[in-house]
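Before relying on records like the one below, remember that each one covers exactly one chain. Contacts with other chains, cofactors or solvent are not represented anywhere in the record.
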Amino acid sequence: MNPSLTPPPHPRNTGVLGFGQYRPSRVVTNDDLSKLVDTSDEWITSRVGIKERRYADDDETIVAMSVAAGADAIKAAGLSAADIDLVIVSSCSLETPLPGAAPEVAYQLGANAPGAYDLNAACAGFCYSLAAADQAIRTGASERALVIGVEKLSQWVDHTDRSTSIIFADGAGAAVLAASPEQGISPVVWGSAGDKPEAIIARRRDTKLEMDGRAVFRWATTDIRDQLTRICDAAGITLRDVDAFVPHQANTRIIDAMLRGQDFRDDVVVARDIEYAGNTSSASVPLAVCALADTGHITSGDKVLTIGFGAGLTFAGQIFVMP
């Protein structure tokens, strides 16, 4: 007789306990870029809505920025690193493919040999990682998880290419998730468009990032825009119940197009961290959440709709309750 496997414990609720961030100290303005490439502050602002972005210095590595953001999130959650039993690092800009960053990040934070792995879903990575952590906690595989989105895209960009150099930037954002009396994260809505792999691509390490901006814009403003109602349906609420909309900070024209015709309330808060942070790929969602919280635009209990979308092409989104 074959013994049956032990089933997972009864599904539990999951909530976000705290967010954290790390923004590199070096500020790069549009005027700075105009010295390297044929552009101007007016041109960049009108096209993508960015006024400045952050570039990491040599010592601000993927691991270092992850540790700083992770420690900030753990502190905000009222925990210590020893309480964390799962670390997920989302990034598409590691300098080398092996090893992943998560085990070293966990070690440097002082976590006690937790589960640790990297996830690469480009600009959708943080939302995919939230879903992975949520499901690990719901099924009993984890008690408290740290999710980090981190990028150092300045080392992957050709700074003479106006199509990419004006957009991408560096930084890290993080969140701590744990079992909760009430469900604080909705089921994830995700999908992909694998027929467009070259819309955003870095072919090899000795090449730079390439992007077909028009293809990405069309996809984001049609297919991705239509996912917002699906995300609300999965959460059992409507767009009218959403307090804040935090999409991936791709560019302001995409954000504006996603909002057009949607049934949000007039007072819904919309993240526009891209203006001073640039496009930080998997770090953009948690950084934008932190910016809204720091300025008092969102507070505890608010329902936040977020969606990440990017290279692959791939997307993921969910709603969470602000801690």
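Residues 144 and 178 are 4 Å apart (CA to CA).
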